[in-house]
Specification:
By secondary structure, this protein is of the alpha+beta class. The chain has 4 helices and 11 strands. The protein starts with a strand and ends with a strand.
């Protein structure tokens, strides 16, 4: 199943390239990106750097526990499009670098927060999701590995 997301998303400062997002459903929670999506970072240490999520990347959108999916579906909500921030965050966490430069987990989490605020996620929800990745993201950061097919594996 092919899914096209963020067709109506506002990008007033032209920070994105590759929108709308084209994905293919794989199984369970996994999706595959069908074309590159780039984001130009606006703030922090990596200001001005561009991170590009490459076509073929396998990801799970936001890692929201299934019990909360009715309120916060992994791909985001109309008016709260946090899914695109999760896609970029997963890419950075997987590769631990931004435009070829090593980054910290805080850098990755901060980009996640920045993207959410930029695309219009309500500030209270962006702050909540940022705090959740700060608390729960330490083990995935150290366990992210990529197999030869590009699939996401968390050991």
């Amino acid at each position: 199943m092919i899914k096209v997301l963020y067709t109506e998303m506002q990008d007033p400062m032209c920070r994105f390239a590759g929108l709308p997002i084209h994905t293919e459903y794989i199984d369970g929670r996994k999706w595959k990106l069908d074309r590159n999506v780039s984001y130009k970072i606006h703030d922090g240490y990596f200001k001005g750097h561009v991170t590009t999520v490459r076509a073929g990347f396998v990801f799970d959108w936001a890692s929201v526990p299934r019990v909360f999916w009715m309120l916060l579906p992994p791909s985001g909500l109309t008016g709260n499009p946090y899914g695109i921030a999760a896609l970029i965050h997963d890419w950075i966490c997987r590769h631990k670098q931004i435009q070829g430069q090593p980054c910290t987990r805080y850098d990755a989490d901060y980009v996640f927060y920045e993207v959410m605020i930029y695309v219009g996620v309500k500030p209270w929800l962006a702050q909540l999701m940022f705090r959740c990745v700060r608390m729960a993201g330490v083990l995935p950061w150290y366990n992210f590995q990529e197999d030869s097919s590009g699939d996401l594996n968390v050991n």
